[in-house]
Amino acid sequence: MHTDFTLYAGLLGGALIGLAAVVMMAGAGRIAGCSGIFRSMLTAKPDADFIWRALFVAGLIGGVILARPYAPNAQAVALPSLAAAVIGGFCVGAGTSLSNGCTSGHGICGISRFSIRSLVATLTFMVVAIITVYITHHVIGG
Amino acid sequence: MLMQRLTILVSGLIFGAGLAVSGMVNPAKVINFLDFGGPFDATLLVVFAAGVAVATLGYYLTFKRAKPLFASAFSVPTSKVIDARLVGGAAIFGIGWGITGFCPGPAMASLAYLQPVSVVFLAAMAVGTLATRLLPAKR
Q1: Which of residues 91-120 of B touch A (CB under 8 A)?
Q2: B11:A23 CB<8 A
Q3: How many domains in chain A?
Q4: Which of A76, A98, B72, B95 has its CA 20 to 30 A from that of A90?
Q5: Distance CA B7, CA B12 (A)
Q6: Interatomic CA distance for residues B70 and B6, integer angstroms
Q7: Is residue A133 part of a domain?
Q8: Which residues contact residue A135 at a Cβ distance below 8 angstroms, ignoring those fewer than 6 apart?
């Protein structure tokens, strides 16, 4: 699927994601890290900690539903194939669990706290993802 | 407790709106950033820069306070260890991100589109997450 470079939508959307991280820290004192929230929900009993995480995820989904009518970038999406989702989903789960973070926790929140650990993780997954796309689209896929 | 939960819900709503507005909820837009040999779309870099800029300033102001507005203390990671687990894990995540264009936030947010593939991805992600529990615990 072709997508256009959208400078202003990118700036606004990115600023909103940054703001969400600040709201989470200023209000609840927590990192808005999506993989950590997902991982904790897998084991947590339906206690108070489970509830706040579920509220965050409900917000993620609700935010897309609310913003979608006004967001040209979110009208049509091209989701991965089922086979890619199975293999890729497993890798995303295992990898973020081992490295304790993903694009939000390490990428946005970690780098904004000047964490070297998060910077190393972010550079690593960026470079590996670029190599992976090169291989799947231009070496294997052609 | 109520105010804290309300804040977290609002944070999630803003985050989800940000993913929609920026197009990061669309895996194709993410892949087109990662694809240097294809129809390159630099939007992700702009999103990242804006997000880090706002969060850096916001965190700076937030951490001037002794504690959060609706919690007793800040709960932030303290580990500074850079080891094989961190780099290897990030690399495995990068493979999955490259294959699908999905990272955990957009994958969860994509449930808004009611497509079965989102559920499949999250189920596989849960299996991958739980699989790491079989490995020796972190030192």
Answers
A1: 91-105, 107-113, 115, 117-118, 120
A2: yes
A3: 1
A4: A76
A5: 9
A6: 10
A7: yes
A8: none
